[in-house]
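Researcher: I'd like a structural prediction for the single chain below. Treat it as a standalone chain; there are no partners to consider.
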Amino acid sequence: MKINLCYLTSFLVCALQIKFTLSKSGEPRTLAFIVDVTYSMIVDLEHIKVAFEAILKEISFELDQNFGEYLFMPFHDPAIGFPLITENKTEFLEIIKMHYGTALHQNKDCEEMALPALYAALHFVTPYSHIVIYTDDNSKRTDLLEGILNITAIKRPKVSFVITPGCNFGANDVEYEKIANRTGGQIYEITKKNVSSVTYALHEHWKSEWFELKSIDFSYGGSHEIKFEVQDLSKILVSFTGKNAKVKITDPNGKQEAGRSIMNMQNVQEIILENPINGIWKLEISALTHHRLRVMAIESDKHSSHYFAFFAAYCIVIGLILCFCLYNYKFFSECFVKCWQSRPSLPQWLKCR
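Model: Treating it as a single chain, here is the predicted structure.
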């Protein structure tokens, strides 16, 4: 009975520790699409639908691993729609199709309601979610920016913008820039025909293991040399956007690395490096206008296995200590009673002092 109790105690200690680790990220993450559904976005919606169909067909299991729910938030001018939330990724695709087919609206002017829609959606998404905003114009209600940044500081989502040609295409939208920068997201200024390619490639960003190595925004065009250190990483994702974006990657040995390109467009360059060697890596980047660099990484299995070994040893030691105490509880209780009974009275203690 005592042995079984010891095993149970050890198991509970491990279970509690695992539960504590999982609770850091809280609820299952949300994948949210916030979409401008004005008539000018009909081509964009078609490409979003095509891309998500491909994602469901080819990497459905990855979606299940990374997200527990899906949110679609439509907006137009002058209103935003209700958030449509489902735990079923196939239903999410049907929601996208529904808006492509029947829910388009005529816009009144060049500015849309992207920021009000984002502000509303942030109240529904879970922490550490991924949010993608599709629009072809700047947003009204810029006064909501501070509130948006306050919520993102708490929920820590990653917010990216996919912006296609509209009234203000190519303009430096300060609000979008600040939100993407604060959340580690990216801004993709692309043509409408590339929306499906960008949406599909974004699934690489959705893995929960990514952490940020570098995040830099440049207000003006120019060339820069950026260095970062690699130590026991399995993957690196370099994301660089800006007008006529160019990237050159050099490893610690001075060898130029091409990597695996997941986005190769005039204004977007995204490259994944597999099993990068340890050392100082160098990026040479350039763009004609304001541009943004994001470098993310995933730790190697070696690093993860070291943590797991330490965690397992920790659980075993705590379990053994508890087992020892349970086996010898009579001895410890008797010692405690004897010590308590033989303690000096207060007057004796004062006299000794």
